[in-house]
Write a structure and sequence with these properties.
4 copies of one chain form a homotetramer. The first copy, chain A, has 15 helices and 14 strands. By secondary structure, chain A is an alpha+beta fold. In chain A, the strands form 4 sheets. Chain A has a 6-stranded mixed beta sheet, with no helix packed on it. A 4-stranded mixed beta sheet of chain A has the order 5-8-9-12. The N and C termini of chain A lie far apart (about 65 Å). At the A-B interface, β11, α9, α11, α12 and α13 of A face β11, α9, α11, α12 and α13 of B.
Chain lengths: ~475, ~475, ~475, ~475
């Protein structure tokens, strides 16, 4: 059972039926809803690739918890090699799906709680670490898709959690019983919430004593009572099930708003409960882990973007124009830079006291900062290479029209040996790569804002040591 | 009659009913079709602003042809001051609509034909110039919306028009009679074709003798027999008539594919017919004129982008964060750079032998090249400032739902004194600014590709003079 | 006398003999000192170009003060056309010298005091404006070179003038008598102090009441008692009078430190004396004027950089490589952008109440901000195009050596028809363009720091108006 | 003897006395010449750090050839760990010297010949590999400083070696005897030629059959008859032995022109002799190795640049200004990106058939491409943060002058607790970092031109695989 197939994954998901609203309507069979199906297909790739001969090596790992084979998306990082394999696995999944496969936030969060619960226990003699390992083992054994619940809605961003006029703008503990805790709040941008079995909720920032009730971490099945998934609306959504116009014909992503309306969490799923001084460390480890994932993911998406650019240049008849080659080379540089920094973040990883490995945060944040500027730049170059048809393409209905289909076939043809339909397909894929807001916004804002990455980079750097270097060379004595 | 009102414009448009297909269906009342209405509203602004007291000074000009007041969108440029006023008028229209108002291509094309027909006549003793002035006078007197038909579909881009396997990949003359000519071909990215009375068709590149039949320029009413408008599909189109989710609630743009299926053009509307050596000059003047328009337009769109960024920062509670101010200042710089270069291109304009003024092509192309990199960068900064909700916002149907509307209102609230609805509206406007492909692709590719601008810039620059400067300073004698 | 020749300028300078120290030694004949001579030659160009037939139109203006012809470097701006001509004159001078000609700070400062003294008089019924005009008339009649004394040494930059431990870190009034005032302080980066007849001292920042004694503006002959010019040391200074190795064989620049050691200023040369609320406006006008000068200057330097790049590519044998052409085109874009924004700042200039015209500060600051990033980028591209020999060229002594000269001549030859000496000259010019710190630092920091330009840009922009535009489009009612 | 001390290194160098010309004069005691001494000190660091307790771990390696400890600058890479240690060692050396330590080209070249001679032998049954190992063993045992001779002077760059009018523009074999070969030519930019014991000469490009005589690789002692070192002149050279004004008070670099005037090479030092098809592979491996070195080096130089920026901001009084912190963070990002990509290039290294490890060329070239744009950008930010005094600082002679020294001390003081002398020192270090042409040109052009890196990146990338990814997602069947 440790390695589900794609079908087993989908079946298990169908059984859950979390409370879900899409465009104002309550939906019952979420898994097969036309707006959700492409996302489920995307996550399903993380299952099916674990069974394909040429990719299973990257997708399958061993667990010391279960002492058996597991999907690497559920693994605790126990070596530099694990972290390196993670980057490569994620790049592979992105190459195969061209979008977000929504299973790495859970992976990154599980590793973060393993590292930090150990430290909390050391200080407070709590037993969070044991609970966390127990939970992770459960996830591994059942090969569950977990997503992490991070981004609180935040209200007025100039105010701390406890200062907000409405105390629910950050998720918090509203009550505590002998069986567990009751929480309330909302999490935004919840990529994967409708394709996952479980959510693992983390605090979204460092906390002070006054924010104590907000320092909470826990896991729940996604169909727990009181959890509401509200679908969020992006561009391109009128395309579903429409063939060519889909662009990326099988895969997609969504990022619901998830409401926690007085939700009960049993104690064995609570991994932090008021230990506010650990909220910051937990977030920092999760964030660095996740920026590390981004670099793998976006170099894979980058491969697709580069491939689309090279293909459309060929379809347009100018694959060898010097400016096209120059731009494609720039794109390769951008893609490989993210990959390189994340591999290096693996190489320079350290071992936490729990035994879990933690990537070099400077290199992981460097990769993400680079992504936030350079993936949008890759998209710009992609549009530049493709040309205006990326925005001005008739629909599949037009090319299939008995009245005007012949016009489309004739006039939108590029080079002789490529059909107009295939050229349209490629333009539609490019449109999706460039204008699917969930992906593009994630390039810029995913894993935290660029400003957050900059602050982390500044904090994690030993500036005094560098000042010493300069002073020594200048002959300044201290 | 010389200055139509917005209503008169719309009424006149309704009477035309050009042959139009939208998503595979033939449409009869185009002007009021839900996908077309916002565009008609946008063009209508160019009419209504000519009647508003505070804006009429920019929108109304005098004509030496009619000896009366005309809409500046139909004017021949007769001074530096005219070109300066054009930039300011266009910036104003963009500030008011936040998108393309689709009437400047016609303006730029009319000025180009006035300049070049004069030169053709000088060489060949033809009477194109007289025809052109007659046509422009007709446009001015009836205050018509004209769009220019430029971008041929091009087929295999490595081949010249006459080398294409299918001779129709560039529009060309297929027959000539005593009454006129018959043309065939297709034009892509035809911004404004469904909101205009007239089309003014230009060749899309320089031509050689072998391409003679492709060197053709003419004007036609948009409902001429044989002209087919085929709507092209972009993102965000399922939003129409849906309130908040619209983003830009009134205005929009589209860029149909237009087919010329053996269309007859009477001689008095033909302005070039085989004089291939003038195709290049005509295109170059049109292109420089249009890049000049772009700078005015995009500095106006830039104002909207900056305004949206500043507003959402305020709604999020952090208008004074130093990184936000720094980014907004960078955006101001970018917007003003385009405006500055286009004002300067006006200031340095020259007079052609026809009397029509022609902007400095180096400065106009510089502005467009800058736009192609920096408007996408402004969009990136806008998303960065706004945050992830630009991609993960529930719909208007959700906030109006009796079951979950209260969740949306509560949890998507930002600062205390702004309603959640208004915050949603601003996020939706930002979504449109960032992900409406027709606009974004136009920032990058509009008015020709960046590579085309670079080639123009290189050609128009006197490199030998600059080499002399360097040699003189280095003491090198020639 | 109103238009001095270059020789008359140099003779008049020789008579002044300001107190000067160079590398620790007191120098008597400053004008002919080998380290100063190239700078005097540079300023002399502003005189000689006023007599050359093809350039005199730009260099010669009319004055309403003298009612005669004057050098445009002494003119009060009385129209948009004056400001346009200023930009063009400055570009010309930079094209001819390839460096800073050190006479525009005085021009910019004279125009600033004309504008602001008028306003001070209006408020306080002082007679500064009359004094200022009298002074400017004297400068015009005698065609004097004036430089402006702006940059105070500033000490601890986190402290205001009156908060500094040493009160002299900003120049200030230390005494006042019936005949005039006594000032003390020091000004850094005083470009042109050793080639000018006069200094016009301005405050370096806005001032508050507590900084009253620092709000002072005055003019003095450069050889006034108590003024010390201390030469500052840059790279490449061992090259003087050494032929090829000079790079720019005739022209140069320097930026002394100037000390005001209890210097007496007679009342008729005092233009502000404690009216602290006008220090900010005076600085702002001067700064915008000077950033406007920068755009003209640096587009001229840009022409030299582009010319050097194109020449060396030719000498190396690869003028037509596609990447070389692409880079040169990028450089053209950068150069023209600065020029364009400054022409536009002229076009959008306003008339102050004194009648002096004042450039659009947004466009002028935009140009300078662009320069601070893009001139260094042009330098980078220049080095990239030239290749490593820009840093690894043997000396003129080597090529002239009887023992090894033949090796140099043989092995450093590029294309067949260019002598090795000429190739060396061009590499040396490029070295100077890239590594003469006074110029390069001025690209980045001249006319104030980039941060200062950003603050100005933010302040001068009406952000509220832009927010209104966005809200209107989004349908938000206020 | 395997680990020389710095003194032993210098003594051994003094004994060599290679033929050297400096500014036209023949020089006898090269090692102690004031212009050479700082460079010798720099290379000496690579010896002394091997003896310092805290750094020896990085500097000392084991050799399978000598079966003992060697300096890592002479090591054959036999594992990923070796390549990782190399990057770290190089970063350390750059942190300590702030410039180029001129010993990595030899290291990179020795590894390249080990890999490629093995392949030549396989094809031709030659014994180059054995010779190469013998030579490397000799270098290891004697802890020699080797530099690589790569960059031919190239003449007309549009012509291949055999097409040049002068056949000597690329170094080539002019004769062959039973004892060895005679070579002629010249190599430019020979960093370290005056601080090294040995030169290892490589071809500078791929070769065709017609270029056969140019396909030559060999090693020689630097004082071999017929080798002429000609010092090349850079900026800042009048500073030597002048205290504060030196900037980097101990260390420096130079890049002579080296002439091979009919030089004899014995057979046992010849590693390629006409096997033209291996010239390309040899260069490619060397180049990738050296770009890998660059990333380590420039991240170390980056640390010094960042340290200097942070120190001067403190000395100026504004270490905590938000724009300063933002810029320093950007600099950290840039520095770490190069480091990250080179660590990753280590991690992804492959084993050549000789057993020597070869870094991932895509990642190594990515780092170098990034450097060529971003180190100049770091320099720009450094100047921006430091302010204009970087270019306008009086000399040490001025501050020591009895007449004006007190002015300098008083007026160039920054914050209260830092002496003016120390502030001057830091500004002088910054001047050196920004304007020492040999270093800055190397950021841009070192290890080949950016265009060369782009071509490599394009060639080494499997674009077809990426096109397949895009087609699969778009639903295009092949």
């Amino acid at each position: 059972m440790a390695l589900k197939t794609a079908e087993q994954y989908k079946d298990s998901l169908r059984k859950m039926n979390p409370t879900t609203y899409i465009l104002g309507e309550k939906v019952t069979n979420v898994t097969d809803h036309p707006l959700i199906k492409p996302q489920v297909e995307t996550v399903a790739q993380t299952y099916s690739l674990a069974h394909e001969p040429e990719t299973m090596e990257l997708l399958v790992a061993r667990s010391r918890l279960t002492d058996g084979e597991i999907n690497r998306f559920t693994q605790l990082f126990e070596s530099i090699e694990d972290l390196r394999a993670k980057v490569k696995m994620i790049r592979l999944c992105a190459q195969r799906t061209g979008t977000c496969f929504m299973r790495c936030t859970g992976l990154d969060a599980m590793n973060a709680i393993a590292a930090v619960t150990y430290e909390i226990d050391e200080k407070y003699s709590t037993n969070y670490y044991e609970r966390a390992l127990e939970y992770i083992k459960y996830v591994q054994e059942n090969d569950l898709a977990v997503y992490s619940g991070n981004s609180d809605v935040k209200g007025d961003r100039s105010l701390r959690p406890s200062e907000q006029p409405d105390p629910d703008m950050y998720l918090h503990i509203v009550d505590e019983t002998k069986d567990g805790i009751i929480v309330r709040g909302a999490k935004a941008h919840q990529s994967g919430s409708l394709c996952a079995h479980e959510v693992l909720v983390l605090p979204d920032r460092e906390m002070r004593e006054s924010d104590k009730e907000y320092a909470v971490c826990f896991a729940l099945p996604n169909d727990t009572k009181g959890i509401f998934n509200i679908y969020t609306r992006g561009p391109l959504e009128d395309r579903l099930l429409e063939g060519i116009d889909l662009g990326n014909i099988r895969f997609g992503k969504s990022c619901p708003l998830v409401i926690y309306d007085n939700v009960f969490v049993p104690w064995d799923r609570v991994f932090m409960c008021g230990e506010y001084e650990f909220a910051g460390p937990l977030l920092r480890i999760f964030a660095a882990n996740h920026r590390h994932s981004h670099g793998g993911c976006k170099s894979g998406v980058g491969d697709v973007i580069i491939g689309a650019a090279a293909t459309i240049a060929e379809y347009n008849g100018i694959p060898n124009a010097s400016h096209i080659r120059s731009k494609i080379t720039d794109m390769i540089k951008m893609s490989e830079t993210m990959y390189g920094c994340c591999l290096a973040a693996s190489m320079e990883a350290g071992r936490t006291s729990s035994g879990v490995y933690f990537v070099d945060p400077v290199l992981a944040n460097t990769s993400k900062l680079y992504e936030s500027v350079n993936l949008p730049e890759m998209v710009r170059l992609l549009i530049d290479i493709a040309g205006g048809l990326v925005a001005t393409m008739p629909s599949e209905k037009d090319i299939n029209s008995p009245e005007i289909g012949h016009f489309i076939k004739k006039y939108l043809k590029g080079v002789a040996d490529v059909s107009t339909e295939d050229r349209m397909r490629m333009f539609r894929l490019i449109e999706t790569l460039a204008f699917q807001s969930r992906d593009v916004a994630s390039y810029i804002m995913g894993g935290g804002s660029p400003e957050a990455h900059k602050i982390t980079l500044f904090r994690e750097t030993d500036l005094e040591a560098k000042k010493k270097l300069a002073k020594r060379l200048a002959g300044i004595k201290e």
